[in-house]
Write a structure and sequence with these properties.
The chain is of the alpha+beta class. The chain contains twelve helices and five strands.
């Protein structure tokens, strides 16, 4: 959960299935002390219903178009009313959600929330977009620091973990070790992938990019470490064949640690359509 301040109004933002949902209730309080009435008045508008229906059609495979058409036909009539809960229940909508409890209220996907804010006040909408973008920039900076910390943890584990003998990269043969490679890049490629850049291109003539473009994140982390180690070995005057042998064994070591430390990423469950 996050909050932004817009024109002295505090707006709550929730992350739902990795998407930002902004509180319509908080936005509506900028216009009235009774946000429920403000939201309902906005939702009974024909233009609003058409926009909501188009959004759901684009992003929600479970959306019920027949119910949407019924609401669209009734919109504009004096007796027509529509609440967020009625819209969600009738059409299977996901762009608007309701939440009970302390931070409860009506929330909408940021696309819809900005549309609602513009209906409240164009000035308010512009200030809200500005503050939302500022929040996202701060989050990106924080993510950068988090990524650096995670990389540091992985490298620490590589250097401190006890590893088993279950090898991941193949151990190079004496012939491969003693071959004179044209570049230091190929020394690293052989140590980790067991193949030179040219050999990879010859084996994949229809694939764009190079061998490193198609490496996994763990391989790229290992490769970065091998580059640092190789630089030290070169400075120590170690021959290419000796360096390759050491780098190959290091690659086996590190990839074993990296692969064993991978944890399954928990993803938000997919929303299933009701039959």
């Amino acid at each position: 959960m996050a909050k932004i301040s817009v024109k002295e109004s505090e707006i709550t933002i929730l992350s739902i299935n990795e998407n930002d949902y902004i509180s319509l209730t908080d936005i509506a309080r900028y216009k009235s002390d009774d946000p429920y009435i403000v939201i309902n008045n906005w939702m009974r508008n024909r233009n609003t219903i058409e926009y909501l229906g188009m959004w759901e059609t684009l992003f929600n495979p479970c959306f019920k178009p027949i119910e949407f058409d019924r609401f669209k036909m009734e919109a504009g009539l004096n007796a027509f009313t529509l609440s967020p809960q009625k819209w969600i229940t009738s059409t299977g909508a996901i762009g608007i959600v309701t939440r009970p409890g302390r931070y409860g209220g009506t929330y909408a996907h940021k696309d819809i929330a900005f549309k609602f804010a513009g209906w409240i006040s164009v000035e308010f909408e512009l200030y809200m977009v500005k503050e939302f973008q500022r929040l996202k920039e701060q989050e990106q900076i924080q993510m950068g620091w988090t990524a650096k910390r995670e990389l540091a943890k992985i490298n620490y584990r590589i250097h401190t973990s006890a590893i088993s003998r279950n090898l991941i990269p193949s151990k190079l043969s004496p012939e491969q070790i003693n071959y004179i490679y044209a570049s230091e890049a190929d020394v690293l490629n052989m140590a980790l992938f067991g193949i030179t850049a040219k050999e990879w291109r010859d084996n994949h003539p229809d694939v764009k990019g190079n061998i490193r473009d198609h490496a996994t994140i763990t391989e790229l982390i290992c490769l970065s470490n091998l580059e640092n180690i190789n630089a030290v070995l070169i400075a120590d005057g170690i021959s290419q064949s000796e360096r390759l042998e050491k780098l190959n064994l290091t690659a086996i070591h590190q990839m074993q640690v990296l692969e064993s430390s991978q944890t399954e990423k928990t993803e938000a469950p997919l929303r299933l359509c009701n039959p």
